[in-house]
Amino acid sequence: MVRRTGLIDTAVEELRGRIETEQWPVGTRIPPEPALVDLLGVGRNTVREAVQSLVHAGLLERRQGSGTYVLSRSELAVTMGRQIADARQRDVVEVRRALEVEAARLAARRRSATDAAALLQRRDERAAAYHAGDLEAMVATDLDLHRAIVRATANPLLVTLYENLLDAIGENIRFNFVTDAHGHDAHDHLVEAIVAGDDGVAADETTRYLSALLGE
């Protein structure tokens, strides 16, 4: 019994690892049971129990007649999603300000040459989407820019927290574009400050535009 439980735990961690590293991205179907048996080197019952464990955790979803699909990269994202499903836009912006001001400060201090190049590219992609008037691309590129800033902090905990709030942040960004609260150059000074390594200006720019969204 102990050995069987250990096999299931090992299988769960293997499956979770492939989800967390996006070998199996959100929205995709995982391999069928026979392939998982070969992949993990365990029996069918162990595979079934491991998959069911991740279904209960909210990472996977079984769809009758179709297969099993990835719903989320982490249990934290599932939990956070439930908590913020009915959050007000103001609540989301306040949380963004709490995280993004420090993220901007740290990114300016720690960004690498690769990070700087990525930020400039994301800035240009955002501007192009704005000028094209493509709302979906505007939201996606704006979110990508903020994610790049957070990744440039080199703080894995901050990155994890931010990544698990992406749904709420993405909806907030969409709301801001629809209400015309964002311009094509809304983050240009922020990106320039981070690339230049000016942590004070980076933090001030982030505080400024998020506080403006709050009417402060």
TrEMBL record:
Record's superkingdom?
Answer: Bacteria
Keyword Oxidoreductase assigned to the entry: answer is no
Q: Name one GO molecular function term.
A: DNA binding
Coiled-coil intervals, chain numbering: none
Assigned keywords, A-Z: DNA-binding, Transcription, Transcription regulation
SMART domains annotated for this entry? FCD, HTH_GNTR
Give residue ranges for domain HTH gntR-type: 5-73
What PROSITE patterns has UniProt attached to this entry?
A: HTH_GNTR
Entry-linked CDD domains: WHTH_GntR
Name the record gives this protein: DNA-binding FadR family transcriptional regulator
